[in-house]
Amino acid sequence: MSTHLSVVGTVATAPRLITTAAGITFCTFRIASNERRFDREQNQWVDGETNWFTVNAFRTLAENADRSFRKGDRVLVNGRLRVRSWNSDQKSGTSVEIEAEALGHDLRWGTSRFEKQHRPVEPPAAAQLAASNGFGDPPHLAEHEAGEHDEPGSEPGSGSESGSESESGSGSGKADELLLGDGFVPPLAA
Predict the structure, then answer these.
(1) Residue 51: beta bridge partners?
(2) Is the full-model pTM beyond 0.90?
(3) I need a labelling partner for 178 at 20 to 30 A (CA). Which of 28, 102, 110, 146 fits?
């Protein structure tokens, strides 16, 4: 049985991205988490004990953590707790690790902007066959490109519907939303 926990702390070491010989990517960094409590005798907030954790993330989570976190960032870590005893030469100790399942910035101390990553996916065999037989775009794509969903008074195909391109920041707008339900995955931006 594993123990799940959530920890709020400060990234204490720069994240390191490592790829194993088996091709598995992982990211590791340490966080410091301390409690603040109000001391009634001193009539002020004081720092309590600091707990140190090594955070390990794997695969896509590791890659995104390496791109997102810097030393000094306040973060939230959710994952499985691992407590291990170690011995080396004349030293011994205990390491406390969290195998991360979810990571994020602590928005109490700043802002963050989520950027969804699109991974290239091979089109299904039927779509490849249709493309090779010369069939055109799917009907819902052709309708959107013809300006069916544009606002009145705008140029057909101008994409002026409620600013979806500028709001999403992805540059793909409603066309992606229309197509995602059909298994369409937009290509990565250059």
Answers:
(1) 33
(2) no
(3) 102
- Give the total number of structural domains in the chain: 2
How big is the CA angle at 65 (ends 63 and 69), to the nearest 5 degrees?
135
Pairing mode, strands 74-88 and 3-11: antiparallel
Tens digits of residue pLDDT in 85-123: 988 888 888 889 999 999 999 988 888 888 887 766 665
Both tokens of residue 7?
Answer: 């920890």
Q: Are residues 19 and 101 in the same domain?
A: yes
Range of the domain at 42: 3-105
Tokens coding 129 = 């066959």
Strands 91-105 and 74-88: antiparallel
Answer whether 52's CB lies under 8 Å from 83's CB: no
* Residue 78's pLDDT band (cuts 50, 70, 90): very high
Whether residue 35 is found in the same domain as residue 97? yes
Q: Kindly give the pairing relationship between strand 25-39 and strand 3-11.
A: antiparallel
Q: Could you tell me which of 15, 12, 25, 8 has the C-alpha nearest to residue 68?
A: 15
